[in-house]
Write a structure and sequence with these properties.
Length: about 500
Amino acid sequence: MPDDVKNIIHTPYTDKPAQGIMDGKTFLDSIQDDREIWYRGEKITNVTTHPYFSGMAHSLADIYDMQHDKKHQDVMTYVENNGLRVSTSYLRPTEKEHLAQRHKNTRFWSEQVHGMCGRLPDFCAAMTVGYVDLHDELAKLNPDLAKNAINYYEYARDNDLCLSHALHDPCMDKSLSPKQDPDRCVRVVKERDDGVILRGARFNTIGPFCNDILISPTHAFTEDEEEFAIWFMVPVNAPGLKQICREIFSNRDPLDHPMSARFDEIDTLVVLDDVFVPWERIFLYREPLAANRLFRGGVMAWAGDASSALTEVRFETLVIIAKLLAETSGIIDRPHVQQALGEMCTYLTLLRTAIRAGHADCSKSAGGHWQPQLFLDRRSMVTRVSERFCDLVDHIGTSSTIFNHTREDWDNPDVAKYLQTYMRGHNSSAMDRHKITKLAWEMTGDSYGRRQQLYERLHSGDAEMVKAGPGKSFDYGPGLERVSKLLDLEDTTIA
């Protein structure tokens, strides 16, 4: 891209020229900005070098570097009308073929982490597309705030921001409404000419490594809960914004923990301790009923497709692990193993088919963008079978995933000689067998894998409601009419 293009593209959010796609160094530099991150009572001064954070930071940097690799550029990037090369994560699907382009990109991101990070930057980039799509609806509420949604999208796109979202309220006393307990939801405590002061907290994923955090409450507000109804973007280093991390799974030896050493996205409690947010970063304000109505349908349309791609890759990873366990154990031909692999492959194929069907049945939104059909059945199936995949890996691996040793054992010749003899597998060295069983345990039995499984199974909301959803939306009409005629039913009201 010519330098003169960079020099003329600016946004309302910065005086710096737009940079287009980030590389790894630029990304790492961008998250060294005095953000307030806490872990185990310690304030973390630099997430790019701290041993508990650096693995994920540098894994993300590696992916950003791939955007500059000619081999991947056609999938990961495109040239915007303003001349900037930007991330495909921000591509607005104004043409039907853009859906496939977006999906290839989000799948590529998912493959780099083997499906083990629930909220990669491409997910939240897709949410900004959703805000743009809702522009006309937002404009009915407040034209100026609606314009902010477009301005912010262009700013994030042209600077390839790494975004996160703090989508859920803390797990407090859910029997109380926000009016009864104002701490339940982020709320406006003061309105100023230049913006608002916010107080409250949210749950967040990948927040220590992002540039901005998107907050859109999902609580079903009543008409009198205006102070809680606000959609906005806030910089991670905003004064008063603090992130308190859950127990981290990284900073472990990659031989013994091949996934978590590299791909722990880290969940945080995001605390807004009287944080100022200017008007230009706010998209919806004091419209509780509109917030309820608009969020799920529009904002999440393309983010949902990104989530499906991630799940698909995670299921693939678990299938491969199960097969490797069976092969190296010498039990691949046993009927119960074949049945277990067959069950996993059936669910994976159904998920792939549902994703393709969602693209084939796409439709154009009121905002003028092509959106995939996000079948409730697909989400329901994932909720039902995510845990089952882990159970089937355990079923195949049995005790081999429990009796694992550590690098220290392998580094000691007096111990390693016994491991070389007694831990080898079918057509497999003892070390390869160690790596496979360690990965299997980390994906299914370790706290890291358990966290991911819970996240995938429950992030769409109450599991039982998700499971019930397809039955509520299913079109029973044609079948009921046919069976009613067969039985010659007298009371047609039941049909």
